[in-house]
Design a protein that fits this description.
Distance between the termini of chain A: 22 Å
Order of helices and strands of chain A: HHEHEHEEEHEHEEHEHEHHHHEHHEEH
Oligomer: heterodimer
Number of helices of chain A: 15
Strand content of chain B: 15-25%
Structural class of chain B: alpha+beta
Strand order of the largest sheet of chain A: 1-3-2-6-8-7-12-13-11-9-10
CATH superfamily of the domain at 6-242 in chain A: Amidase signature (AS) domain
Distance between the termini of chain B: 40 Å
Helix content of chain A: 25-40%
CATH class of the domain at 6-242 in chain A: Alpha Beta
């Protein structure tokens, strides 16, 4: 079966056509059926069925049906969730059971949603293909030989394979949008601070955002309206006045101005992907709004800035994994320093080590000004440039990724080639603006994603516009 | 020739003040300093669990702002938090959250009187930071233990300029800082629990240039600051006298042994890889907030010091009164500055020598402060009218301070036989005779059996048919016994 829209799932539940238990059983059997794609690291069979039973009992007793009652979902394995290990796909956290839960998971559960599994990812979200998972690689739903993208590859593939109606992931440099593009689903990265980061394993704290994968904008909006909002446990969350609302505001399309990011259509874009993107943009144009090409010169520096700032924050955030309190610990250590060295050397994978080394380097005395500080300055310049463009344009548009999903192993020999996959997604994280990848078409039966960006805090407008696009051209 | 005096001493002090917030700097766990159960007052933030985020305690900002005014400065409109990285088991996140280049307080000064001169010590900066936990290394064991109760406790680190010129000044600086922080009501100031911990930077040199800097870590009492500096001065002088080098290092202070010892060499500066903390937005204070804090500040010790000095009081008395002010919401100070010089001299004597010791006795109830002040004023008139002698007055004050309410003084004097006795000479004669007539008892007293005095007091009471107050009799006998002792010696 294919999952209907989330609101319909909840309706079927309240009208007695189906039960939460039935939904959970379907989701769990979907996971088994699709095991060849290796989308999940662990399942919560027992806990999920127990929760479903309670929800079914509530409905039998005519209690108010919560907004996500009995809706199964999958969380990326960097969300702390009760009832399953939280590993962030890393050996150093293998077997770690969270003693507290992520705010986003709390909010979903309090509306009756049921987490059935933890999705595979690149360890600590470092990567664009899940090939950096310390456990296994998630396969692309459209081609088993290709990657599903990353780092939220497991979450994206789970929705593409219709295992669950929605999943949650994290996006630090494109980790939601890129796999969404590779897997032909809607992947939404909200404004920085829209969803609490509390209880989500940090990668780059000034860039990390929490978002969703789903089949359509209505579902994106529905779930986002539940998880967004101010959280006293995360001081970087936005005020509730920016909260995403589950209500589509009709737009006067003729008043909307769209900017195509010129730099994203340059030579490194696969010409076939370019065709799909331009054709999608043409359809949008025909909706009767203004579409211009715009240039943001500093956007070319975004990737370099990202790969200085993000590793700095990564190196800092990974300091706590030291083998002393939780996770993997080298127990035969001869002394404290030996324990630190061996626990981290054995516990971390190569990509984490690479980023720790880059990050420590750019923060070390004598190099701080040349790298970290300079990158911060360029980040500010990038923010200013985007603000400038948003004075004249409501939304920016372009491809999500320069290419379609690549073959497993194809890019593992060159880190740089792998990093180039993020070239069109990192800017939104550096600037903090909301961005989304929408299914736009195919190249040789492989999906292509169209990226749209909005102004910071104006996530509702971006979703309104995406809904117009969905209604008009899909 | 004694070369010691040839060296110029330069001292700077870093003081960690533990702020008296209810909860920790970045978590909701309680901030208490007498928790005996290890790892009790911690939560996922203090433990550095994956996904845990710090959330700033706004009360710490308020207290730091008060401290700013106490230091003759004001809080910065903009300041921010940074991460200072190093690995240690009692630092769960692998970094300490502190303020690196934009602290909440910049500039300010502390001043005090030293050897009759006003000394002004400039403050470089003061910043907020979260304390680390405690590592415990049990003897003869192959493991160490970590207690994170202290992890995340809010500290204000006050850094002085190297303006301090002697061990005495260093101690006085620390004592003044203590009073300032207590008056600003930002810390419990309990030195036993390490509420104020001092790191002392010291260098000596023969000429104007600064010598090699040595840091003495965690000196935890005023007296130890003075002792540690004196020790270090001697140690370094000896090295320089014999043309040896003073190593740049961090040393510890062994209080029982009274010496410093090497902790680690500082030749290779640690690289802490400071970075702005992305989890914490900058602290932005608006002018209205800053003004509100300023308005809420009490009068500071400097103000009272000069007021009391104008009344002709000794410095030792003044410092006792300044500390006492903290226990009674400055009511004694307000009362004293309303007196004239003569009154102040007498009354502060009673406060310092009778009232303050009484207030420090546990379980001792004491007359309410308004009645205390009434008592002091009426006793002052008794003395000025020569109606009572000093011994009787002390007895009267102590007794009434311990009473539940203020009695009528005149009738109290009568009923307790405390009036200036016109027959004082007669009483003295009876006492002298009693001593003479009881040589064995007197001998016992002289050999240290103080209790035997009570027998002589009883004899005098009998002789005078209970007309005299026993405590006055005891006072007279004591004086006579003292005379005998002096003769013997």
């Amino acid at each position: 079966m294919s999952w209907p829209k989330i609101e319909s799932i909840v309706e079927s539940l309240s009208s007695g056509q189906t039960t939460a238990t039935e939904n959970v059983k379907v989701a769990l059997s979907n996971i088994k059926k699709n095991s060849q794609y290796q989308t999940v690291i662990s399942t919560l069979d027992k806990e999920a069925l127990e929760r479903a039973k309670l929800i079914d009992l509530d409905i039998l007793n005519n209690k108010k049906v919560a907004k996500l009652a009995g809706v199964p979902f999958i969380a990326k394995d960097n969300f702390l969730v009760f009832g399953a290990p939280t590993t962030a796909a890393s050996n150093i956290l293998k077997g770690f059971h969270a003693p507290y839960q992520a705010t986003a998971i709390d909010k979903l559960e309090s509306e009756g949603a049921i987490c059935v599994a933890k999705a595979n990812m690149d360890a600590f979200a470092h990567g664009s293909s899940t090939e950096n998972s310390d456990f296994f690689v998630t396969k692309n739903p459209y081609d088993l030989e290709r990657v599903a993208g990353g780092s939220s590859g497991g979450s994206a593939a789970s929705v593409a394979l219709d295992i669950v109606p929605f999943s949650v992931g994290t996006d630090t440099g494109g980790s939601i949008r890129q796999p969404a593009s590779f897997c032909n689903v809607v992947g939404f990265k909200p404004s920085y601070g829209m969803v609490s980061r509390s209880g989500v394993i940090a990668m780059g704290s000034s860039l990390d955002t929490i978002g969703t994968f789903s089949k359509n904008i209505a579902d994106t909006r529905y779930v986002m309206s539940i998880i967004s909002g101010r959280d006293p446990l995360d001081s970087t969350t936005l005020d509730d006045s920016f909260k995403i609302v589950n209500k589509h505001q009709k737009m006067t399309l003729s008043k909307i101005k769209i900017g195509i990011i010129k730099e994203y259509l340059a030579d490194d874009l696969n010409p076939d992907v370019k065709k799909v993107i331009l054709s999608a943009i043409n359809k949008i144009k025909r909706m009767g709004l203004v579409v211009d090409e715009v240039s943001i010169p500093s956007i070319d520096l975004a990737l370099s800035v990202y790969y200085v700032l993000c590793p700095a924050e990564v190196a800092s955030n990974l300091s706590r994994y030291d083998g002393q309190r939780f996770g993997y610990s080298y127990l035969e250590a001869s002394n404290l320093e030996d324990s630190y060295l061996k626990s981290r050397t054995i516990g971390f994978g190569d990509e984490a080590k690479t980023r720790i080394m880059i990050g420590s380097y750019v923060l070390s005395s004598g190099y701080y000004d040349a790298y970290y500080k300079k990158a911060q300055t360029v980040r500010t310049k990038l923010i200013n440039d985007f603000n400038q463009v948003f004075k004249n344009y409501d939304f920016l548009i372009g491809p999500t990724v320069p290419d379609v999903a690549f073959k497993i192993g194809e890019k593992s020999s060159s880190k740089l080639e792998m990093y180039l996959n993020d070239i069109m997604t990192v800017a939104a994280n550096l600037v903090g603006i909301p961005a989304i990848s929408l299914p736009a078409g195919f190249v040789n039966n492989l999906p292509v994603g169209l990226q749209l960006m909005g102004q910071i805090g104006k996530d509702n407008q971006l979703l309104d516009f995406c809904q117009e696009i969905e209604e008009n051209i899909c | 020739m004694n070369q010691e005096n040839n060296y110029k001493l330069t001292i700077g002090i870093e003081c960690h003040v533990q702020l008296k917030t209810k909860t920790k700097l970045f978590s909701g766990a309680l901030n208490v300093d007498d928790q005996e159960i290890p790892n009790k007052d911690i939560n996922h933030i203090d433990f550095g669990l994956p996904g845990a985020l710090p959330v700033l305690n706004s009360n710490a900002i308020y207290l730091a702002s008060r401290a700013a005014f106490a230091l003759n400065s004001k809080p910065q409109r903009f300041s921010k938090f940074d991460r200072k990285h190093y690995f240690y088991p009692d630092l769960p996140m692998g970094y300490q959250i502190t303020q690196y280049d934009q602290p909440i307080i910049i500039g300010g000064y502390v001043q005090f009187i030293s050897n009759n001169k006003l000394v002004k010590i400039n403050i470089t900066r003061a910043h907020l930071e979260a304390d680390a936990g405690k590592s415990i290394h049990p003897g003869n064991k192959d493991y160490s233990l970590v207690d994170l109760n202290r992890s995340g406790t809010p500290l204000l680190e006050i850094v002085s300029e190297p303006d301090i010129k002697s061990a005495l000044q260093a101690r006085q600086y620390a004592e003044t800082l203590y009073l300032l922080m207590r008056y600003a009501d930002v810390t419990n100031g309990n030195l036993y629990y390490g509420n104020m911990r001092f790191d002392v930077n010291i260098s000596i040199s023969r000429n104007k240039d600064l010598g090699q800097r040595v840091e003495i870590k965690n000196v935890n009492s005023f007296k130890s600051i003075e002792r540690a500096i004196n020790y270090e001065y001697k140690r370094q002088s000896k090295l320089l006298d014999t043309n040896q080098e003073v190593r740049q290092e961090t040393r510890g202070w062994d209080d029982p042994k009274g010496c410093t010892y090497s902790l680690r060499s500082k030749e290779n500066a640690d690289d802490y890889r400071y970075m702005p903390d992305p989890d914490l937005p900058p602290i932005l204070l608006d002018e209205a907030y800053i003004q509100d804090v300023k308005k809420s500040m009490p009068l500071m010790p400097d103000y009272w010091f000069y007021k009391l000095k104008d009344l002709g009081l000794d410095e030792s008395i003044i410092y006792s009164l300044l500390e006492d002010g903290l226990d009674n919401d400055f009511k004694n100070l307000k009362f004293i500055v309303s007196l004239n010089k003569e009154e102040a001299k007498l009354i502060t004597n009673y406060i310092v020598n009778i009232e303050i010791p009484l207030t420090h006795e546990s379980n001792q109830k004491i007359l309410n402060i308004e009645d205390r002040h009434k008592l002091y004023l009426s006793t002052y008139s008794l003395v000025s009218q020569n109606r009572i002698n000093s011994t009787a007055l002390k007895i009267l004050i102590k007794d009434i301070l311990m009473a539940s309410s203020l009695p009528d003084i005149d009738s109290y004097i009568k009923s307790h036989n405390l009036a200036q006795n016109s027959n004082q000479d007669e009483l003295l004669e009876v006492a002298i005779n009693t001593i003479k007539n009881n040589p064995k008892v007197t001998k016992d007293i002289l050999s240290g059996q103080d209790k035997a005095i009570q027998y002589l007091v009883g004899q005098v009471m009998k002789e005078t048919k209970g007309q005299a107050n026993p405590l006055i009799i005891q006072d007279i006998i004591n004086q006579e016994i003292e005379k005998l002792k002096n003769v013997k010696n």
